[in-house]
Q: What sequence folds into this?
């Protein structure tokens, strides 16, 4: 087993591995720590040639200790598509799109939940719950079903109905919440003891970050063991940014890559941009305790980027700053136009994926990107999952845990 | 270049390669013929370890001669998922599902159109048209956009609206047809000379069968260079069956596999089952000229399996018989139940994919499958693409080419 324990991303304290409670006493987020010398013994670049085209090819850098507990539906090793004709138009050295929508649940969320649910299985957990804007819920539902674990998902009422409908299809107990993702999270926190739920929300357990980390390792392998200059990523809770940053650090420590850290660019939608605002506050000298929390007047669309209170905003901001990256907000209109542009290139992109294209155009216009830059965008899901079809009538709508209980007991 | 020319699947006559008109003088279908000695020089099992995880890893067995003309969106090399817990329940030696919904356009149709559109590009074609029950249209639309080729798609009015909506998203000129897929095909045939369309319908050009062939090659590689005993496949026009059979023959001729031909099982839906009926007719001694054509009373759902007149029914039947396979029809109800069963395993399956599960259960019940059998099912698309959302109001509805012209001129 290559998994050694956990370490704090803020104060660096190391503790033994545990499955729940990822907050360090200092308030930082705990992440998985590996014995990289052991990793290097069996995971070599040559060994990878013979491994499956799945994110589990990097099993030594994933925290599941019992191979029989791996819960897989065919996730990861998604195509990295070059957009050559746009490189010239936009004056970039390289432009790529990572097609995360080609994962088993039609979104990048498959990666995190493949690891998280494997850890649930290893820990003999029987009930898992998640608050989600849709794709995380559908991924938990699918992987939990595959593992024979009961899943309970709580999704804001205005989230895309087709994604919501996937959850009961996969066998999840599904509730719509009259509120935002933090309201959904509050319901789980209120009920978890009573109901026996393990909360697998963002940064609540170690698996999802580790699963998202494989996006970074894969990117490096697909580019010939290097990173691009810039990664533009649609950011909500931030586990993807944290994961890819961790991939960079681990590959660097293994001596597999020589390049600088990629500049991480977080893209959000206007109307819910805590990362953009947090970065501005920090640039103006505010310390972490002065970072804004729950914004009033959230007006952005119900996508994966709408996370008013990322669980560890400070860590995301540190990564972005450390990398020389930035955070930008784009408008609904820019996102819609970007979706059309990508569609006309043969790519079905979710609003989140489209937002990275809109962000790319903004950064090209502003001169932030330079002609020598290689850039990778992430298309996190299919456009069609966001098609309008109305709220499923069959699902209950609740505001809080009391209403949940009332419904269950009715 | 490994592509040598075309050969007739019925009379074996060889002719030089051409892009259009795949009917031999004898009435058989022309298929691509390769110089397998040349193929073997550069395509070795070892060489494949270092190639991209895309169907283009088999480029020597694909008919595109100019590598710059390859039009790719990240297709093929889809996961093959083992269903271990069902092997015991169903008493089978191995049960696998090939997850074709993880292709770039969310369906197996990506494969055929990646090759077909590459050939269009190589042939400097500027306008392509296809009759389709949905997924072929959306695949043509996506790949044609990527290649800068104009696409024109004609889809029966009752086909899934979300798939229909993808076509204009990808930039295709999209028409709904008040009729079946053969009515849509008739419109293209009537207009192709006037409009400059190349018809890329099933078996109209050599690329789609070759692209679908990669499903078979991949399956063999993923299983360690062997085929399963049985392949259960949802069949409409039949290019997938023809392609996988061709994969078997070519791999056998290369000496890469030693196994017997897999038994091909075609699954259709009750209410449109020309393959099931054709097989029955042949078993009763009917010759190919007596095969039934356009059935009256088509009552099956608008899926990819609803093809009342497969372009070369005789070839499909010959392959099924040669392989020791069979053809079965399942009901709407069985398909719906199978979709639930697969969903509860974490798999989002299209009605076509669900039909293979329903077919599997039928063949287990009847004793046709034996406990020593290894079986592979194909899930050809995502469930969500088939969600109801109503006919898009913005699209024209036509019955024939005259109405098309009237609309265009209005």
A:
């Amino acid at each position: 087993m290559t998994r050694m324990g956990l370490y704090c991303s803020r104060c660096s304290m190391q503790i033994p591995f545990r499955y729940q409670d990822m907050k360090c006493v200092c308030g930082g987020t705990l992440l998985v720590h590996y014995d990289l010398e052991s990793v290097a013994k069996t995971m070599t670049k040559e060994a990878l040639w013979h491994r499956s085209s799945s994110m589990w090819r990097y099993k030594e850098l994933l925290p599941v200790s019992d191979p029989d507990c791996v819960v897989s539906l065919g996730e990861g090793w998604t195509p990295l598509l070059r957009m050559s004709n746009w490189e010239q138009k936009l004056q970039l050295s390289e432009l790529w799109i990572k097609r995360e929508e080609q994962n088993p649940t039609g979104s990048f969320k498959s990666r995190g939940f493949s690891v998280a649910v494997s850890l649930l299985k290893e820990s003999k957990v029987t009930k898992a719950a998640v608050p989600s804007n849709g794709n995380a819920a559908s991924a938990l539902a699918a992987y939990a079903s595959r593992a024979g674990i009961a899943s309970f998902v709580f999704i804001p009422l205005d989230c895309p109905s087709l994604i919501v409908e996937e959850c009961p299809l996969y066998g999840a107990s599904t509730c719509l919440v009259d509120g935002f993702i933090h309201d959904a999270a509050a319901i789980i926190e209120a009920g978890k003891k009573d109901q026996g739920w393990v909360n697998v929300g963002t940064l609540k357990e170690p698996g999802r970050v580790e699963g998202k980390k494989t996006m970074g390792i894969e990117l490096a392998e697909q580019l010939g063991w290097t990173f691009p200059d810039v990664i533009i990523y649609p950011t909500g809770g931030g586990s993807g940014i944290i994961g890819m940053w961790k991939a960079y650090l681990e590959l660097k420590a293994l001596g597999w890559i020589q390049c600088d850290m990629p500049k991480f660019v977080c893209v959000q939608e206007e109307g819910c941009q805590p990362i953009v605002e947090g970065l501005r506050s920090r640039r103006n000298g505010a310390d972490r305790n002065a970072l804004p929390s729950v914004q009033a007047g959230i007006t952005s669309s119900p996508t994966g980027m709408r996370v008013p209170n990322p669980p560890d905003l400070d860590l995301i901001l540190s990564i972005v700053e450390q990398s020389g990256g930035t955070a930008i907000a784009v408008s609904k209109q820019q996102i819609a136009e970007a979706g059309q542009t990508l569609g006309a290139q043969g790519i079905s992109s979710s609003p989140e994926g489209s937002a990275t294209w809109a962000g790319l155009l903004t950064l090209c216009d502003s001169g932030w990107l330079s002609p020598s830059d290689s850039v990778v965008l992430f298309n996190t899901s299919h456009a069609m999952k966001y098609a309008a079809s109305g709220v499923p009538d069959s699902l209950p709508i609740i505001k809080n845990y009391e209403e949940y209980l009332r419904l269950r007991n009715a």
